[in-house]
Amino acid sequence: MSMLSGKRLLITGVLTRHSIAYSIAEEAIRHGAEVVLTSPARARRLTERCARHLSAPAPEVLDLDVTNEEDFERLRGEIERRWGSLSGVLHAIAYAPPDALGGDFLGTPATSAVDAFRVSAVSYQSLVACLSPLLQPGASIVGLDFDASRAWPAYDWMGVAKASLESVNRYLARDLGPRDIRVNLVAAGPIKTASSGGGFKGFGIVAEGWKEWAPLRWDADDAGPIAGAVCFLFSDWSRAITGEILHVDGGFHAMALPAIEPPDGLG
Q1: Which residue ranges form the domains of the chain, and what is each CATH number?
Q2: Active-site residues: which are they?
């Protein structure tokens, strides 16, 4: 049997075929899981286009805008109608306004910082709270992270939001553990996606440093290692792991490295 045979997974964050979440959905289906996707209504056509490449029939796409409380209630109702219960959830949702990224950390308006925090960190708790009644014993929740233990060039308030995400992960693990539900993060190395290229001006600097210093090297065009690790966390093979941050980054996080210096204007 495939390691995810019989698993029913809800996967957020599929926007293009370059999305990390797309690679995760593809790998999960390959290993026997049933999958549904979510998308904000404004991006639904993009997600549906991706879904058609994943399997036949294509996975269903359900509306979810994490800034709209009503969407959470509708999402739970749709999942309950379709499956009745869930084996796993992927949180792959992050956003920061343009003025919360790019190197002007001190100049970021408080409202933009709050937006980054709400969408990128609070949404993790909101999604899990919404779906909690449907999670089976043995279910697994996985969130996508970017190492928040250091300050990255131009990452600014998204980095602060990721630090919050890591804390939320620990509290969710505490509260859901007694129900035999696991909650973990995968701290991925930099991957070229629509959001990294357009919203994170320091991405190229960080990716080049990663390629040079990760002991296993790193390919920013290949999300496969991340997808494999997430599927492991979805599987019963990880049944005693919770509250963890699993680094899938070629070993970069473990190295004593020279600082990655941003060019003028990026930090």
Answers
A1: 8-249 (3.40.50.720)
A2: 155, 162
